[in-house]
Amino acid sequence: MANTAQARKRARQSVARNKHNSSLRSMLRTSIKRVRQAIETGDQAQAAAVYQKASSVIDRVADKNIIHKNKAARHKSRLAAAIKALA
């Protein structure tokens, strides 16, 4: 258990941050799943529309250092390649 006032405050802050970061990470995973589901339907136009929204979410999460920028680029690249392969 935290003994000093500073340590107690840091513990409170880490709980709040963890909750916020978990929410963002969940939003990221959901948006990626939506793109994959759109790809499975085979409709390239719909998949591209969903990808645009997901791309925005991926960039936002990477800017906040929830995930590394290279991981964000990897996700976007693989999803874009999968959409392009539908043609």
Q: What features would you describe in this structure?
A:
Binds directly to 16S ribosomal RNA. Pfam families: Ribosomal_S20p. Residues 1-26 are annotated as: Disordered. Residues 7-22 have a biased composition (Basic residues). GO terms for molecular function: small ribosomal subunit rRNA binding; structural constituent of ribosome. The chain has a single domain, classed as Up-down Bundle (Methane Monooxygenase Hydroxylase, Chain G, domain 1), CATH 1.20.58. It has helices at residues 5-41, 44-63, 69-85. The protein contains three helices and no strands. With 87 residues, it is mostly helical. The protein starts with a helix and ends with a helix.
SSE map:
Layout: H1 5-41, H2 44-63, H3 69-85
CATH topology: Methane Monooxygenase Hydroxylase, Chain G, domain 1
Annotation field: number of helices: 3
Average pLDDT, rounded to a whole number, is 96
CATH architecture: Up-down Bundle
How helical, in percent, are the residues?
A: over 70%
| Secondary structure tally: strands | 0
Task: Indicate the low-confidence ranges by residue numbers.
Answer: none
Shape summary: elongated
> Structural class given helices, strands, pairing?
mainly alpha
**According to CATH, what is the class?**
Mainly Alpha
- Proportion of strand residues: under 5%
Number of self-contained structural domains: 1
The CATH superfamily is Ribosomal protein S20
CA-to-CA gap between the ends? Answer: 58 Å
SSE order: HHH
Region (Disordered): 1-26
Pfam families: Ribosomal_S20p
GO cellular component, one term: small ribosomal subunit
Family: Belongs to the bacterial ribosomal protein bS20 family.
